[in-house]
Amino acid sequence: MGIQFNQVSYFYRGVKNESYEALNQITLAINDHEFVAICGQTGSGKTTLVQHMNALLMPTKGEVQIYEHTIPLKNKKTLIGPIRKKVGLVFQFPEYQLFEETILKDIMFGPKNFGLSDKEAEQKARNAAKLVGLDEEILQKSPFRISGGQMRRVAIAGILAMEPDMLVLDEPTRGLDPKGSDEMMALFNELHVTYHKTIVLITHDMDIVSRYAKRILVMDKGKVKFDGTREILFLTDEFEKLHLAKPNAYRMMEHLNKTLNIPFKQVFTEEELLTYLKEVYHE
Amino acid sequence: MAKIEVKNLKFSYNNKDEAIQDLSFSIEEGSWVCIVGHNGSGKSTLAKLLIGLLKADSGTIIIDGLELTKESVHDIRKRVGIVFQNPDNQFVGVTVKHDIAFGLENQCVPQPEMKQLVEQYSRLVGMESYLDKEPHQLSGGQKQRVAIAGALAMNQDIMIFDEATSMLDPEGVKDITEFIISLNKKYKKTIITVTHDLEFARLSDQLIVLNKGKVVLSGKPDEVFKNRDVLSNTELDIPFGMRVYDKVIKDDKLKNEKALVDELWAYSLTK
Fold this sequence. Notes:
The structure holds two protein chains of two kinds. By secondary structure, chain A is α/β, with parallel strands linked by helices. Chain A folds into two domains: 243 residues, P-loop containing nucleotide triphosphate hydrolases (Rossmann fold, 3-Layer(aba) Sandwich); 37 residues, no CATH class. Chain A is 36% helix and 22% strand. Chain A is built from ten helices and ten strands. In chain A, the strands form two sheets. Chain A has a six-stranded mixed sheet. In chain A, helix 3 packs parallel to helix 5. Chain A starts with a strand and ends with a helix. The mean pLDDT of chain A is 91. By secondary structure, chain B is of the alpha/beta class. Chain B is built from eleven helices and ten strands. In chain B, the strands form two sheets. Chain B has a six-stranded mixed sheet with strand order 6-7-8-3-9-10, with helices on both faces. In chain B, strands 2-1-4-5 form a four-stranded antiparallel sheet, with helices on one face. The radius of gyration of chain B is 20 Å and the shape is globular.
């Protein structure tokens, strides 16, 4: 099932009624159990694209099929809630949206909105908190008295408590230090591998992209300019035009190839680079 | 004489754990010093102490020969500007020009002079064509530029950047990093950058590495990087090139490949 974009365009209206085309005739499928990274420069349409994935934005032209629902809705009486329950969207800096007195109450807010009783919502909240690695003891604390990294976990737990099949994350590691960022990515990877969640995430970090994503989309001026694997991405002729960096290991490999004549091989992570160096020199 | 002289500085938030423990260092005029530390190392606390947003329990801070006290704090702030992490939390004006003028208004600078200063410094940070824009029309990097212009307009010649790029996208990071370097090289400002990012810190003239409120290392980047056993205890992320180098010199076979070892070391220090 998943999500299907059919010829989707989206226009933002400016103050003087001039409009700006943020998405330009996008046709795209996100399938169940995928791990997709979306890259692209600021203003390329990444955030606009993902906000269509749980009907937060409605296409100006075209259609988005989100599981069994088609957006824009044909029948005005159809509720949009069930769609948002299927696809959980986590904004940039989601910790700014925390508001409740306690961490537990904050995580319960989503499930309660979907009509669950306090007891059911609490159970789901406790499960979600456990999933993101929050200790039982802190659940009664104020969400404003914990570190930034912990706050972000609370915000993500709030989405997971609604038990979505698909988790869409807009730059989930921005502003975190390297350790916090690694832990956050390990969490999404576990949700993907162990809990079979479909993961879609926007990131600028090419080391993260090439370590975790099985499929990479690159946006440019409202269009999908690349859709494929890391192995193909860094070798495409148009790579320069995509304004992306290469992963650290990849760049070092290119450097060693140039300076020491080590035969070039595509490597994406520190481990892959070291394994390859050992291969070359141990022979 | 040093531009900034810190002696035996101590500070605690709750009279129990000392966030800053007996800190001493000095910063030369016109240099770019990077204060590096992990979350909770005391680096942001130190930045706030330096501009008198927090008051030390004991010890002294001397800036331009003037000791920071309750009485001198306003004079000190005329010399030291600070740009914080979050571009949205420090934009106080309705438009770019009002934001740059905010500090000048507080100092009762006459209107014609203020107008001229706003124009001058908006040009310096490359925001002169955005004077009437509102904050929501600007990117994070542009908001940080406006914050810098506001500080420069007050003629502050020491600038502190407290994780000023950590919330920006890669273009914003590159933009502000280059701008910080030009403030130092071209406009001869004394720069203090506070960060956890050693990849960025290695570009500066001098590093002061904090851990648990103490200076654990200080010196030029290559000197600091030679002490990686100390660095690795600070929970800081060692730059990628250095990490590969460390693993290579621990490998029985690879460590004897001199050309490879030398190349990796040179690569990890390239600016």
